[in-house]
């Protein structure tokens, strides 16, 4: 009997330390529910674990009084990313169209997302985002991105952003990296205005980056917020992307590699100007996310398959021995 009691206590304890209450809310102001709608719903990948049905099966949420706000509070494990969408009915075809700035954004994924990093006893609440919008009413979205590939090892306490938009708190806004890339990001909501900020490789004030150059004001990064914005994925401690950041070894040739066809539809070929030294080719999108990686390149040319890539502009980095950046090219996909 004593063994059974001990096991039950252990299970309850583990459940307690891993769970966190989160409030998801949507503002339906100005939205007319479709004919026959039974109410506003949510669907996401947290449902099975929270007991609100199967993942991505619409689940009805509650109207807050006579307001246009609908919400639900769930109990889900912390230290995880969650994806979701709101719907104006039970039918999946009535799901909101999530703006690009708020999307997961890679591999055609158009869900909203959050990263839950707190075990505090309060309920985490990100605000009632407007249906089909980027932010709660009266606020503007800012999506911070930083590339940590030149920062050495990334702290086990995570990468954070702090600034005068949140009291220079080094542990409040943790960044998440999708698909094991070197780019970390987080979505915040602020009122329009000018803000200074910095990134932290960790979660204490001593982990703050040191930065100088054209992008700095008072030794900090600065942004003027007038509309929803996704920031460039600049290099940690630098004012430019990591491929061009001071301190990254690079090598240039007298000739440029030839990338064609460009724009590309199904494929593009690179004929390397310095083919005998090329070891790797990495392709990233405009948000700095890696979409393709060709390692162990041992040829004077390479064919890039583009038929599975979304239309847009991509950046192709050609690497040589010892991770030297030989060349950076722009690729346009139809």
List keywords for this structure.
single chain, 334 residues, mainly beta, Immunoglobulin-like, 3 domains, five-stranded antiparallel sheet, four-stranded mixed sheet, 40% strand, disordered N terminus
What does this protein look like?
This protein has two helices and 24 strands. The protein has three domains: 20-130, Immunoglobulins (Immunoglobulin-like, Sandwich); 140-235, Immunoglobulin-like, CATH 2.60.40.10; 258-333, Sandwich (Immunoglobulin-like), CATH 2.60.40. The protein is 6% helix and 40% strand. It is globular and about 70 Å long. It has a five-stranded antiparallel β-sheet, with no helix packed on it. 31% of the residues are buried. Strand 20 (278-284) and strand 21 (290-294) form a beta hairpin. By secondary structure, it is mainly beta. Mean pLDDT is 87; it is low at 1-17 and 246-254. The N and C termini lie far apart (68 Å).
CATH class term of the largest domain: Mainly Beta
Approximate shape: globular
State the major sheet.
Answer: 5 strands, antiparallel
Q: How much helical structure, as a percent, in the residues? A: under 10%
Distance between the termini: 68 Å
What percent strand? 35-45%
Q: Which fold name fills CATH's third level, the topology of the largest domain?
A: Immunoglobulin-like
Spell out the CATH superfamily of the largest domain: Immunoglobulins
How many DSSP H or I helices?
Answer: 2
State the total count of DSSP E strands: 24
Order of helices and strands: HEEHEEEEEEEEEEEEEEEEEEEEEE
**Strand line-up of the largest beta sheet:** 11-10-13-15-14
Secondary-structure-derived class: mainly beta
Give the total of domains.
3
What is the mean pLDDT? Answer: 87
> Under the CATH scheme, which architecture of the largest domain would be assigned?
Sandwich
Provide the low-confidence segments as ranges: 1-17, 246-254
Rg calculated over all Cα atoms: 23 Å
């Amino acid at each position: 009997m004593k063994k059974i009691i001990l096991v039950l206590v252990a299970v309850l304890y583990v459940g307690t330390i891993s769970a966190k209450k989160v409030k998801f809310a949507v503002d339906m102001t100005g939205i007319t529910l479709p004919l026959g709608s039974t109410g506003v719903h949510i669907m996401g990948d947290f449902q099975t674990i929270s007991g609100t049905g199967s993942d991505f099966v619409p689940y009805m949420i509650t109207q807050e009084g006579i307001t246009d706000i609908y919400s639900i509070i769930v109990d889900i494990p912390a230290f995880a990313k969650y994806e979701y969408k709101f719907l104006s009915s039970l039918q999946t075809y009535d799901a909101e169209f999530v703006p690009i700035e708020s999307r997961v954004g890679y591999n055609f994924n158009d869900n909203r997302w959050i990263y839950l990093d707190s075990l505090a006893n309060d309920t985490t609440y990100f605000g009632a985002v407007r249906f089909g919008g980027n932010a709660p009413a009266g606020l503007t979205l800012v999506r911070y991105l930083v590339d940590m590939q030149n920062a050495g090892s990334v702290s086990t306490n995570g990468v954070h952003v702090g600034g005068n938009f949140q009291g220079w708190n080094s542990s409040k806004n943790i960044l998440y990296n999708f698909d094991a890339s070197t780019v970390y990001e987080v979505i915040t909501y602020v009122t329009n205005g000018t803000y200074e900020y910095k990134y932290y490789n960790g979660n204490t004030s001593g982990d703050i980056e040191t930065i100088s150059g054209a992008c700095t004001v008072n030794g900090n990064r600065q942004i003027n917020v007038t509309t929803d914005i996704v920031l460039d994925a600049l290099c940690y401690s630098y004012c430019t992307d990591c491929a061009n950041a001071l301190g990254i070894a690079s090598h240039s040739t007298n000739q440029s590699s030839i990338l064609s066809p460009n724009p590309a539809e199904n494929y593009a070929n690179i004929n390397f100007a310095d083919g005998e030294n090329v070891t790797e080719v990495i392709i990233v999108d405009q948000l700095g996310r890696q979409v393709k990686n060709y390692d162990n390149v041992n040829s004077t040319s390479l064919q890039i398959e583009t038929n599975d890539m979304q239309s847009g502009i991509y950046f192709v980095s050609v690497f040589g021995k010892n991770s030297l950046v030989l060349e950076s090219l722009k690729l346009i996909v139809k």
